[in-house]
Amino acid sequence: MKSRARVAFVAALIPLLALACDTHNSQKEEAGRLLERISAVDLRAPFDVREHQIEALRELPLKQPAVREARARCVDAHAGLLAAERAQSRARTLLDQTEDGGTRDRAALENIAQTLSLAARTLRASQKAMPACEQRAKELALER
Q: Which of 1, 30, 80, 83 could form a disulfide with 126 if both were Cys (CB 3.0 to 4.6 A apart)?
């Protein structure tokens, strides 16, 4: 009787163990895909290329909560950095236009100052988010 109970117990455990192993493998596979997408974001690439790379990272289908959380942190960090760089570029363009026109229009200078302020705030937020992205990516890499 005891052996039948033991056999039934082991038989019931087999699907649970298979499910647990499947989930672990799924997380490893998702982590690998995520790490590939993160490493594909080229910080030296033109803005539009980086925007597509970040969007590809954002749209990566993931089911595992830990991997999804890592993706969210990295998307926030990279998108923030890109937004800050775009704002700085806009400010540079506005400054060049102001200087080319030979005028020091107060409204134009205020617009430049606001654009630079936005760039600085966005850059600080991105710099705060980047270590969390890097930490989660390292953890996922070590779990693989």
A: 80
CA 138 to chain CA centroid, nearest Å: 13
- pLDDT given at position 63: 95
What are the pLDDT digits (tens) for 47-68? 999 999 999 999 999 999 999 9
Q: Which tokens belong to 77? A: 């960090």
pTM (2 decimals)?
0.77
Please, is 42 exposed, middle or buried when counting C-beta atoms within 10 Å of its C-beta (0-12, 13-18, 19+)?
exposed
Q: Which two tokens stand for residue 3?
A: 């052996």
Domain that holds residue 110: 2-143
- Whose tokens are 């600080």? That residue is 124
Number of domains making up the chain: 1
